[in-house]
Design goal:
The structure holds two protein chains of two kinds. Chain A is an all-alpha fold. Chain A is 64% helix and 1% strand. Chain A contains 17 helices and two strands. In chain A, strands 1-2 form a two-stranded antiparallel ribbon. In chain A, strand 1 and strand 2 form a beta hairpin. In chain A, helix 9 packs across helix 11, helix 10 crosses helix 11 and helix 14 runs antiparallel to helix 17. Chain B is an alpha/beta fold. Chain B has one domain: P-loop containing nucleotide triphosphate hydrolases (Rossmann fold). In chain B, the strands form two sheets. A six-stranded mixed beta sheet of chain B has the order 6-7-8-3-9-10, sandwiched between helices. Classes of the chains: A mainly alpha, B alpha/beta.
């Protein structure tokens, strides 16, 4: 008995419970063993609410990942026929005389009339025949052009320039609404890249400069004003920014620069830059602020000026975060639609000149998706360039992440 | 209380043979007159008036919040970095008022180096940590840089441990090594005075004893002021000790006197561990 008492006291001391007896008083004799130590066996049932909340949050985050995946699957699926070259947009087709209707298998008929099984099943024989006669009629309207036989959605015509009839040399054109639709993506890709580069060149130095100033050099009072006002820029709807670029900035920049086309990738790039400054700024500022103050103090105590400490010590230490800010800015810039739609001039020209009108992938999708026939070559092309955009941002984020990881481990002294 | 704070400087004859290398030539290098410091409305230092001698180790002891670190930071004006700090009185280093309008604080900090409580090497290579300090002060020649880096690492008794990995990140070093690197960095630019703010408080006993050996080594060349919470450390490394309490300088004398026969009751209570 005495030994048991001692053991209890020992246990009590272990769990920090000085008066173990008082715990026992509340327990009926039979339940003795569930009190005290036995309680640790209850697992998650001990805190059911926390367990529930935890699981709920897990589900929410899982569904976010699933959502992204589903969006990609949907967009990608619509583009697949083009990616694998299964789409045929050539206007010249084999014509089957309507009299031969009975000799066709249902499968052949379906492919010929471009219908689904259900659609075909709902039709009676006369309707089928009518459709076949319509085919013959349409074939008569096909232009007498050698290009009419070309499947313009095959990769050769999507990527490389081609000398169409009436053209003097091979060209890359995006011209989906024309007798012979042309879907060369080169002008759109060049337009997107050109505008994004201009936007980044304009905004990244400004945003990072402002971030260094606000986080390292500015007195507290100035910081209190500058930081929220830069971040307020993020609150401007991009359509308003685009409108401003279209009406005010375009005229002003043209009168200063004296170039020919009023709306061009330069104007769009600057407006786009305004949109991404707050994004880059606030992430870069966070990264700079989270560099330990002790680095700055060490540098100052060695006799460096505030600027030297910020530039030589804090900036390199914050480089992973700053790079993340730039990657995010890039993603925002290449994906932004409204501003480029309004301010870029929307001419799909193959030109690296920043003062030429241009057209980006995003603006093309936004402008044309409403008029494209669902399931048609144009529709599929738009989904194709959409997936391309998705892929570009995904890959850039991935490589950005890897690079940031390497930078970080180098800073922390893990890798040479 | 106030008048009793203005104390005579202990002169060499009163001090034991502990100050051996410079006995007879001790000169005051830092002196303060009626130095008061306010954080907003709170007074952190109350009319401090004393002098610190050249090429000796002076320890500041006292309970937390007594102002000893604040006073230390007055000597290289690191308090400038804190908002709402107001300083009254005079701090003179080598006869010059360092709070004067014409003083270039960057020049001051080149002459008054500092080692912090938590080791704070830059996230760069070991070599680059020291080279950065040297480059700040105009040394750009590569060979000269390597030479100076080696010299200061040797001086900080770190060379043998790191000579094979000079270009590895300094953050891969152990805590004690990092702190010695910080000391190497501070002495690389040849300051006159080195301020140490509890340099060994985050280190294990072995690393601490290495830092202490280093301090005893360095005092041949530098004036060292060290803030410490560790009474034994103050007794082991310092020649003079100043005891602070609630922003006031209570007693300042040779270390032997402070630890064996303090004049003040509060000092005695503190060094014997009865409070603080």
């Amino acid at each position: 008995m005495a030994a048991r008492q001692a053991k209890r006291r020992c246990l009590a001391a272990l769990i920090g419970q000085h008066d173990f007896n008082h715990l026992m008083q509340h327990t009926a004799p039979g339940e003795n063993r569930t009190a005290g130590w036995m309680g640790i066996r209850r697992g998650h049932r001990a805190r059911p609410l926390e367990w529930l909340v935890e699981k709920f949050i897990f589900l929410v985050s899982l569904s976010a990942i699933l959502m992204i995946f589903l969006i990609f699957v949907f967009v990608g699926r619509e583009a697949l026929p083009i990616v694998f070259g299964r789409m045929n947009s050539s206007l010249v087709r084999k014509v089957i005389p309507p009299e031969n209707l009975d000799q066709l298998t249902p499968r052949e008929l379906r492919d010929y009339l471009e219908l689904t099984e259900a659609q075909l099943g709902a039709m009676d024989r006369d309707t089928r025949k009518l459709l076949m006669e319509l085919k013959v009629e349409t074939a008569k309207d096909i232009p007498k052009d050698k290009d009419a036989a070309i499947n313009t959605t095959s990769w050769r015509y999507l990527v490389f320039p081609y000398q169409w009839s009436d053209y003097e040399r091979p060209v890359s054109i995006w011209q989906p609404i024309s007798q012979i639709p042309k879907y060369n993506i080169a002008p759109l890709i060049i337009g997107s890249i050109k505008t994004t580069i201009i936007a980044l060149l304009f905004s990244v130095p400004m945003a990072i400069g402002a971030a260094i100033f606000v986080s390292q050099l500015a007195p507290a009072r100035v910081k209190e004003i500058v930081k929220p006002s830069v971040e307020l820029l993020a609150g401007i709807p991009s359509v308003v920014l685009g409108f401003f670029a279209l009406i005010v900035m375009a005229s002003f920049l043209q009168s200063v620069g004296g170039y020919e086309s009023r709306l061009n990738s330069f104007v769009a790039g600057i407006a786009l830059g305004l949109a991404i400054i707050p994004v880059v700024f606030s992430i870069a500022e966070d990264a700079l602020t989270s560099v330990p103050r002790s680095y700055t103090q060490a540098a100052l105590a060695l006799g460096s000026s505030r600027w030297q400490a910020a530039w030589h010590i804090v900036l390199p230490a914050a480089l992973p975060g700053i790079f993340a800010a730039i990657v995010l800015g890039f993603g925002r810039a290449i994906g932004e639609t409204m501003i480029v739609l309004m301010a870029s001039g929307n001419a799909s020209i193959v030109s690296w000149n920043g003062f030429d009108s241009t057209r980006t992938i995003t603006a093309t999708i936004a402008a044309e998706v409403m008029e494209a026939v669902v399931g048609g070559p144009h529709y599929r092309m738009l989904f194709m360039i959409g997936s391309l955009l998705f892929l570009v941002t995904f890959v850039s984020n991935l490589f950005g992440e890897l690079f940031i990881h390497r930078l970080k481990s180098r800073l922390e002294g893990k890798a040479g | 209380m106030t008048e009793s704070i203005v104390r005579k400087i202990p002169v060499a004859s009163e001090v034991s043979e502990r100050i051996s290398p410079t006995v007879g030539t001790v000169l005051p290098i830092i002196s303060t007159q009626d130095l008061s410091l306010y954080y907003g409305a709170t007074q952190a230092l109350k009319k401090i008036a004393f002098q610190i001698n050249e090429r000796v180790v002076t320890a500041f002891i006292g309970p937390s919040g007594c102002g000893k670190s604040t006073l230390l930071r007055c000597f290289n004006r690191m308090n400038d970095l804190i908002d709402n700090v107001r300083i009254e009185g005079v701090v003179e280093i080598a006869g010059q008022d360092i709070n004067g309008k014409q003083v270039d604080v960057i020049e001051l900090r080149k002459r008054v180096g500092m080692v912090f409580q938590r080791s704070n090497p830059f996230p760069k290579s070991i070599h680059e940590n020291i080279a950065y300090a040297l480059r700040l002060h105009g040394l750009t020649n590569k060979d000269a840089l390597s030479e100076a880096v080696e010299k200061s690492l040797r001086q900080a008794a770190l060379w043998d441990e790191v000579k094979d990995r000079l270009h590895a990140s300094a953050l891969g070093l152990s805590g004690g090594q990092q702190q010695r690197l910080c000391i190497a960095r501070a002495i690389a630019i040849q300051p006159d005075i080195i301020l140490m703010d509890e340099p060994a408080s985050a280190l294990d006993p072995l690393a601490t004893s290495r830092i202490e050996e280093l301090i005893l080594d360095l005092k041949r060349e530098f004036t060292i002021v060290i803030v410490t919470h560790n009474m034994q450390q103050a007794a082991r490394v310092s020649d003079f000790t100043a005891f602070f309490y609630l922003g006031e300088l209570i007693e300042y004398d040779s270390t032997r006197k402070i630890f064996t026969n303090p004049a003040n009751r509060q000092t005695e209570d503190y060094v014997t561990g009865r409070f603080g």
